[in-house]
């Protein structure tokens, strides 16, 4: 046993002396890949949208939705560029939040980066190919929006709860360590206006009822209080419904 220990000591000393004499020959420690340094939903972007006639599909107008950006800041501590090849949004739930307010004959198609099919039931995953490079020792912001493929007049705002995974060029994955709750704000103002009319009437209106307003306020408040990151549109929408419900209690 003493002989083995002595041999190992001699070998270790020899290796240490070799690297002292030839430092360039020493193997470098593995460098980490991309790191997530910040995530937020506080940036907004105007989303171009086409309003189409449901009757014949002709374009009737052009409008913009204001929608939050899912914004992820990536840092590359390595000596080589790192390429993001694909982003995946793992949707745990998709919820329409609001009360009926009537319908028209318009379909709105907005140009979101991730377009959620109306008929899909959560959970499911959406994938988007990309070629996004982060330079050596650099920092870049990756941002995108998410919303429905299309919405029809009479639709409610939709709330998406999801997590994000990035697939890198070397085959590895980077999971963004934040759950996100994000609202597509289409028709939010219309829904709140209809709810306000119902509250002012104090009885059933043509479509919206005070009972529905109370029910949907509870749903919106629960979603706005979710853990992780919550988009400001949902917080404002939930607060608007809560103000109406509080008015009924006065």
How would you describe the overall organization of this protein?
With 250 residues, the protein is α+β, with helices and mostly antiparallel strands. Helix content is 27%, strand content 41%. The chain has 4 helices and 13 strands. The strands form 3 sheets. Strands 3, 6, 10, 11, 12 and 13 form a 6-stranded mixed beta sheet that branches. A 5-stranded antiparallel beta sheet has the order 7-2-1-4-9, with no helix packed on it. The protein has a two-stranded parallel sheet with strand order 5-8. Strand 1 (35-53) and strand 2 (59-75) form a beta hairpin. The termini are far apart. Mean pLDDT is 84; it is low at 3-12 and 25-31.
Provide a compact summary of the structure.
By secondary structure, the chain is α+β, with helices and mostly antiparallel strands. It has helices at 2-21, 188-201, 210-224, 232-249; strands spanning 35-53, 59-75, 82-96, 106-110, 114-116, 124-134, 139-144, 146-148, 151-152, 158-168, 173-175, 180-184, 229-230.
């Amino acid at each position: 046993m003493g002989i083995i220990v002595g041999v190992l000591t001699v070998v270790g000393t020899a290796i240490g002396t070799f690297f002292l004499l030839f430092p360039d020959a020493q193997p470098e420690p593995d460098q980490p890949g991309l790191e997530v340094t910040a995530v937020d939903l506080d940036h907004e972007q105007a989303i171009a949208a086409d309003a189409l006639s449901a009757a014949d599909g002709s374009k009737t107008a052009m409008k913009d939705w204001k929608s939050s950006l899912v914004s992820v800041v990536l840092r590359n501590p390595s000596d080589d560029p790192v390429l993001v090849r694909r982003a995946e949004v793992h949707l745990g739930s998709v919820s329409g939040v609001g009360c009926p307010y009537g319908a028209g004959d318009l379909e709105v198609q907005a140009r979101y980066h991730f377009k959620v099919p109306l008929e899909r039931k959560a959970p499911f995953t959406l994938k988007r190919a990309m070629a996004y490079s982060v330079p050596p020792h650099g920092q870049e912001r990756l941002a995108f929006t998410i919303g429905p493929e299309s919405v029809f007049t009479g639709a409610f705002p939709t709330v998406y709860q999801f997590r994000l995974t990035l697939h890198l060029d070397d085959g590895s994955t980077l999971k963004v360590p934040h759950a996100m709750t994000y609202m597509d704000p289409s028709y939010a103002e219309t829904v709140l206006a209809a709810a306000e009319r119902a509250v002012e009437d104090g009885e059933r209106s043509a479509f919206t009822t005070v009972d529905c307003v109370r029910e949907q306020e509870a749903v919106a408040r629960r979603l706005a209080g979710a853990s992780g990151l919550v988009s400001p549109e949902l917080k404002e929408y939930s607060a608007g419904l809560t103000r109406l419900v509080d008015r009924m209690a006065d």
